[in-house]
Write a structure and sequence with these properties.
The complex is a heterodimer of chains A (161) and B (102). Chain A has six helices and no strands. By secondary structure, chain A is an all-alpha fold. Chain A folds into two domains: 94 residues, Up-down Bundle (Four Helix Bundle (Hemerythrin (Met), subunit A)), CATH 1.20.120.1200; 32 residues. The chains are: A mainly alpha (161), B mainly alpha (102).
Chain lengths: 161, 102
């Protein structure tokens, strides 16, 4: 594991923290896009180019556009005041959480047996289309249900109602 | 390989922690949804790093691709719901939704 991976992962966590804490919603959406860009680069470095491409193009691209569109459509409704303690408590929470996290991971190092590694054969297409044939139908159903849900939510009222 | 896996797990747990904090403390509906997205990033990092450590990167990759597709549907539906709720309550504040309590 190279230092670059650690830097990328730290940047990912920091960008996500900024996305959660930023006051301006547009800045938060852009920080979320930056964090998924970093996650996509981490995926590329793990030899997972397809997941990386999907992460960068769909999550960093499409979802950011949807977020910014929603922010623009709801902007006129006025700002929501977050409580001030949220920002003050966050560093304490974050440091405590990271410390506990590090302790747990250190404790696990000795206890978890080494994962049995087995070589995988074939290509990504083989695995996606031949090993996982049936649940792709479920995936298609989910996409269709998403489309119908959006259609139902923005349905126009009929004239005779 | 095992220690590398734990490093990835450490950062993924950090992401899930940040998302949970946002879900527990924020009032803005869009901020709450950003928290859910951050948790989702942590989960996909766990999935892919476990596949990487076990040598099953292709299967993990196909699961992550499926997850991303489902995430897009979730985002589209949830943001449409947020827009409708905002038009109804004239605010992005989640506390205004208490009138839905039965």
């Amino acid at each position: 594991m190279a230092t670059l991976d650690i830097v990328l992962l730290s940047g990912l966590v920091l960008a996500s923290a900024f996305a959660v804490l930023a006051k301006d919603l547009i800045k938060a959406a852009v920080a979320l896009a930056v964090s998924s860009l970093l996650l996509g680069i981490v995926f590329f470095r793990m030899n997972a180019p397809f997941a990386g491409v999907f992460e960068i193009s769909v999550v960093a691209g499409l979802i950011t556009v949807l977020f910014i569109l929603t922010i623009a459509l709801t902007r006129t409704e006025g700002e929501v005041r977050e409580s001030k303690t949220v920002l003050r408590v966050f560093p304490v929470f974050f440091v405590l959480f990271i410390a506990i996290d590090a302790l747990v991971m250190k404790g696990l190092t000795a206890k978890i047996a080494t994962l049995p590694a087995a070589a995988e054969s074939g290509t990504f297409g083989d695995v996606l289309w031949k090993q996982r044939t049936f649940d792709l139908i479920g995936q298609l159903a989910v996409i269709l249900s998403g489309v119908f849900a959006v259609l139902a939510l923005f349905r126009k009222r009929d004239k005779d109602e | 390989m095992n220690s590398h896996w734990l490093v990835y797990l450490f950062f993924a747990a950090g992401l899930v922690g940040i998302g949970l904090y946002a879900l527990l403390t924020m009032r803005n509906l869009i901020k709450l949804f950003i928290g859910i997205e951050v948790i989702g990033k942590g989960v996909s990092l766990i999935l892919l790093s476990t596949g990487f450590a076990k040598g099953h990167i292709l299967l993990a990759q196909s699961l992550v691709v499926t997850y991303i597709v489902i995430e897009v549907c979730l985002v589209a539906t949830a943001l449409a719901l947020i827009i409708n709720v905002t038009r109804h309550t004239k605010s992005l504040d989640v506390r205004k939704l208490t009138q839905l309590k039965g």
